[in-house]
Write a structure and sequence with these properties.
The protein is α+β, with helices and mostly antiparallel strands. 25% of the residues lie in helices and 29% in strands.
């Protein structure tokens, strides 16, 4: 607990069971953690080309039946670009 790595908070039952309805819900989570969770459900793993992108904070819901749609919407929210390949997706800084 002293390290700050553990957070205890109240969680609504609906949010805790959202995964049962193909939903991943996040509140102020680093994009790197969101990507790690999304990759558990994705056919095409998402990679962060720029580690700084992983520090961006994300709040929202990812529908696991439409991960491609969520990935496509990311450039509208964050300064990044999406590169799609046959077997994976790369998120990189929009400046590159």
């Amino acid at each position: 607990p002293r390290s700050g790595m553990v957070r205890v908070s109240h969680l609504a039952a609906q949010r805790a069971t959202a995964w049962r309805h193909h939903q991943l819900e996040f509140v102020d989570e680093p994009l790197s953690m969101v990507i790690a969770n999304v990759n558990r459900c994705s056919r095409h793993p998402v990679q962060l080309a720029d580690p700084q992108l992983g520090q961006l904070m994300f709040t929202g819901t990812v529908n696991t039946t439409n991960i491609d749609g969520w990935i496509g919407a990311l450039p509208h929210v964050f300064p990044l670009q999406v590169s799609r390949f046959a077997d994976h997706v790369v998120l990189s800084s929009a400046a590159h």
